[in-house]
Amino acid sequence: LLQTVTGFSENKYAVMEPKDILYLEAGIEGLLSFTNTKAYSMKETLQYYEALWTEKGFLRVNKSQLVNLYHVKEIVPWFNSRYVLKMNNGHELEVSKIYAKKLRSLLKI
């Protein structure tokens, strides 16, 4: 089974390993994967990667984002039982109330 995925950016395809992806985000123009340096468009859905990569350390944190927990630098408690994840690349992602329970359970916080 191939452990790499392809992403498209600047008219080129890049071959990436899941460990190099900080997070995936579903938006109007489809699925984007964010690395330390770039964002790439990807073919499949967020649900597809959620099912495939849970054992690789990826966790759904809200309706449109799937995060690689290995790239989370800090977890900041937020109001209404939510959290903000500070990523290694400086981005901040909000964990919605629905997904915060799973995060707490997984990380024992």
Which keywords apply here?
109 residues, alpha+beta, five-stranded antiparallel β-sheet, three-stranded antiparallel β-sheet
Question: What can you see in these coordinates?
Answer:
With 109 residues, the chain is α+β, with helices and mostly antiparallel strands. It has helices spanning 46-53, 97-107, and strands at 5-9, 12-16, 23-27, 30-34, 39-42, 58-62, 65-68, 72-77, 83-87, 92-95. The strands form 3 sheets. It has a 5-stranded antiparallel beta sheet with strand order 5-4-3-7-6. The chain has a 3-stranded antiparallel beta sheet with strand order 8-9-10. The protein starts with a strand and ends with a helix.
> How confident is the prediction overall: mean pLDDT?
93
**Proportion in β-strands:** 35-45%
Order of helices and strands: EEEEEHEEEEEH
The counted number of beta strands is 10
Taking all Cα atoms into account, the compactness measure Rg is 14 Å
Biggest sheet descriptor: 5 strands, antiparallel
Q: What gross morphology would you assign? A: globular
Q: List unreliable stretches of 5+ residues.
A: none
Question: Reading side by side through the largest sheet, how are the strands ordered?
Answer: 5-4-3-7-6
Q: What structural class is derived from the secondary structure elements?
A: alpha+beta
Percent helix = 10-25%
